[in-house]
Automatic annotation (TrEMBL):
Superkingdom field: Bacteria
InterPro entries associated with the record: DNA-dir_DNA_pol_X (IPR002054), DNA_pol_B_palm_palm (IPR028207), DNA_pol_lamdba_lyase_dom_sf (IPR027421), DNA_Pol_thumb_sf (IPR037160), DNA_pol_X (IPR022312), DNA_pol_X_beta-like (IPR002008), HHH_MUS81 (IPR010996), Hlx-hairpin-Hlx_DNA-bd_motif (IPR003583)
Chief place where the protein resides: cytoplasm
Location(s), subcellular: Cytoplasm
NCBIfam families according to UniProt: PRK08609.1 (NF006375)
Protein name as catalogued: DNA polymerase beta
Domain Helix-hairpin-helix DNA-binding motif class residues, every copy: 54-73, 94-113, 129-148
Cofactor(s) annotated in UniProt: Mg(2+)
Domain Polymerase/histidinol phosphatase N-terminal per the UniProt entry, residue ranges: 343-422
Amino acid sequence: MFLQNNEIRDLLNQVADLLEIRDDNPFRVRAYREAARVIEQMTEPVASLVKANKDLSQYRGIGRDLAAKIREIVETGGLEQLRRLRQELPVSLLDLMQVPSLGPKKTAQLYKHLGVASLEDLERAARRGQIADLSGFGEKSQQHIIESLGRVKKSGEKRLLWSDAAVHARALEEYLMDIEGVRRVRVAGSFRRGEETVGDLDVLVTCGRDREKDVMEAFVSFEGVKNILSHGKTKSSVILRPGLQVDLRIVAQVSYGAALHYFTGSRAHNIAVRKLAQDKGYKINEYGVYQGEKRVAGKTEKEVYASVGLTYIPPELRENMGEIQAAADNRLPALLKRSDIRGDLHCHTRRTDGHGSLEEMAHGAIAMGYQYLAVTEHSQKVAMAGGLNEKQVLQYMKKIDAINEKFSGFRLLKGMEVDILADGRLDLADSVLAQLDLVVCSVHYQQRMDEKKQTERIIRAMDNPYCHILGHPTARLINTRDPMEIDLEKIILAAKDRGVILELNAQPDRLDLPSSYCKMAAESGVRIAVSTDAHSVENLELMENGIAAARRGWLTRNDVVNTRSLSELLRLLRRP
Ligand SMILES: [Zn+2]
Ligand SMILES: [Zn+2]
């Protein structure tokens, strides 16, 4: 059994959660969380490191004790300690933490005082009003729990974040490509369209006819497979360990393009394309484009589109949201590419809640091929992360100046991620903000206000002449926290009037601004910053996530500010 890094991460986090619920030593809890975080950010599979007998305690954040636990996980697929904790505490307690406002501490309280051990118990206690009386909860949080429960239940079978699905998709692709006789492997479906979350993987393979049986055999014995749903000649289905279903189909070379188009979807897009074909007297299915009995196209996707008079449509746009007309008129946008990106405009260092030093982050950015990286620490309001006050900001700026002396052709931009206070004022004095290269303004507190008040709060923040970028505008966390109640159309127009840039935050569970609003913003003439919000050097690579989301939002190089050279960017940052 070969565990992926994110699976090991999840196991370590489960231990941390259960230890914390049990009110165990906080240092021990932190050791597990820290190790989970380090593993999440490793680019190499931990399982390979263990198998090569590498000493994991060499990684900062992994102590001796945790290195041994990780080895145990890799070698046995589990952890004795986790098994013991699960016997001691009801496993269903972990479900409670799907409710966004419930962390281990509150879960422990509910369990101890009200005997709440499952989502059903939680709902009952909330409806009876028992939670409001518990210290640290109150009427409002009880109401919030009831509202969240609806969503938790709805999302019952959880879809994986795109980036988590990508780990499995890549491992599987690599494995299949290594099988003798395999020519092409392609993951289609919502994964290929770059959707925020992925429910299952549709894999297409081409290979020599005589190899089909062996390919299917190899697929169902992939080490990530938990159970086999079906095992056929040209189609098999399995469930991978995180509960992800994978359907693999072997397709003929001549049908490859038609099959790829068919299984990539979306449904709405495919229906619209089939309709065009009908109008021309063709029929399109997963095997090809047909005129009567004769196959006229289907070897490549490009051929399929050409047969109905369209230019090739990138998968991220296939939602029947105007892409077909745009392709017919030959005016599809030239979507943002990795090579367009010149820098990153949002990151944290060890000074607040990041994990790299200024120098390490700078070298990381240089290795990405960037001309600039904006360091945007938290402001004082975020006390938990050690946010900076005015005096500390000025000191930190000096430190950045000193480091910049060492570089030519690269610059750390002096920035801050300033909190937007409840009334829309910013968390730092204008006199200090005026000295920074760049200011990202974000909401981290009081995310639940009514729509009118919340929208006014954000627009007031944008009124400040030093607000350059609105950070993670909706504050949603995919699968765990709803977006704030805000009037995004109004905010987009306000950003346009004030020359404020909107952020597309590339953290896998944020992807905020959501793609559909990226499109709306760009159409209104608002510029977007695709930023990683990196908290470590490895995190800088999340840019890939951001680009996938930007492409779904139809964004081009021109719409995105961090495609500009340093001098152009600095000119852009001067507010009118
Ligand atoms: Zn933030
Ligand atoms: Zn941030």
